[in-house]
Each structure stands twice: as C-alpha cells, then as structure tokens.
Design goal:
The protein has about 200 residues and is mainly α. About 75% of the residues lie in helices and about 0% in strands. Helix 6 runs antiparallel to helix 7. It is globular.
C-alpha cells in the first residue's frame, strides 16, 4: 500500500513536468515560425496530449522517462540551426524553471503549513515535483538520440555533428537503450540531479 501511495504522490509531478516540457517545445517552435505543433494540438498543458506510454511507465517505475515528442518542421524556421537549438533547449529550460518555482512553494509550505498529515502530503507532492522536473531536464540533455541533447549538440556543432548522428543514429539509440536497461542512465544523472537539487534548496532556504 505504501508503494502505491508513493507512486500517487509522484504522479502530479510527472504529469505537470511532461506537459510543461512538451508545451514549451511547441510554443518555442511556433514562435520560431513553425505552426506544426499548433496544428497537431500540442500547444496545450493537457498531459493526455503528451503522454508516451513507455516513457510514462519508465518515469513512474524507474524515476526517469520521456514524453511523446512534439513534431516540428525546421524548414519553417527563419534560421534553422539557431531556431532548432532554441526549440530543443526550451523543454529542459522550462523544467528547470518549474523546479525552481516548486522549491519556492516548498519554502512557502515550510513557513505557513501547519505540521499535519495533510501538510506532509503536500510537502511530498511539491518535493517530488521538483525532483521529477530536474529528472526530465537532465535526462533530456543527454546528447543521444532521440533526446533533446542530441538536437542541441547537432545544432551547435553544425553539419559535421549532424552527419555523425545520421551515420550512427541506430547505434546511438541502441546505446541509449543499453544505458536504460543496465541502469547506466541513473548512474549518470543521479549525481547531477542531487547537485542541482541541493543548489536550489540552498539558494531558497
């Protein structure tokens, strides 16, 4: 029962985190001149529009995962290389800002919520939301396809980096799968999440 309750306390953070992440990608793409996310109904915070079943289950069970990617058409961008980088970084940046906002809410809860079972539940939901958004930010910055990090690195590095990704795309995706299966992702991102989380808590508290 406690396992189920813990997962329920994580669920709001997951739904909010993936919705903000994908909405931000779509919003940035529209601002850069591509209306594809708008036409596909992805310019919304409704989590049902953004859920990827496998990515959602990974987030719920293993603590890291992904949402259904927002489709973009970079040919609609005025400056494809620059604009693709902006669109790619928008999701992780939005997750970081959300994490920071919820650390502020944690501070408010610490100051004003009375100590009670309800207060403890609210505290855990807020804290889980901070952690989940940091997970989404850092996990998606890994520079392996299909994550945002490989788009960011490709856009910054130009043709040579993109050619590398195109040539070894399947191999790199397989490497990503191996990292997930053998817990490599957790080993990579957990220390970074801990550092960023402690930094935010120290800054606010």
């Amino acid at each position: 029962m406690s396992y189920l309750i813990n997962k329920l306390l994580v669920l709001p953070g997951i739904l909010l985190g993936i919705s903000i992440h994908e909405f931000s990608h779509g919003y940035a793409a529209v601002k850069m001149g591509d209306d594809t996310p708008l036409m596909q109904g992805r310019l919304t915070l409704n989590p049902l529009k953004h859920l990827d079943p496998m990515g959602f289950m990974c987030l719920l069970l293993f603590g890291f995962g992904w949402a259904k990617p927002v489709m973009i058409n970079s040919r609609n961008f005025k400056n494809p290389r620059r604009d693709d980088a902006i669109v790619s970084i928008a999701g992780p940046l939005a997750n970081f800002l959300t994490a920071f906002l919820f650390v502020l809410l944690l501070k408010a809860a610490d100051m004003f919520l009375p100590y009670s079972q309800l207060g403890q539940i609210i505290w855990e939901v807020l804290q889980n939301t901070v952690v989940i958004n940091l997970v989404l930010m850092i996990f998606n910055l890994i520079p392996l396809p299909p994550l945002d990090g490989h788009h960011i690195l490709g856009s910054l590095g130009g043709a040579r980096v993109w050619n590398f990704y195109y040539r070894y795309y399947d191999h790199l995706r397989f490497a990503m799968l191996l990292l997930i299966v053998f817990n490599g992702v957790s080993l990579i991102i957990s220390p970074i999440i801990s550092v960023v989380y402690n930094m935010l808590i120290t800054l606010v508290f």
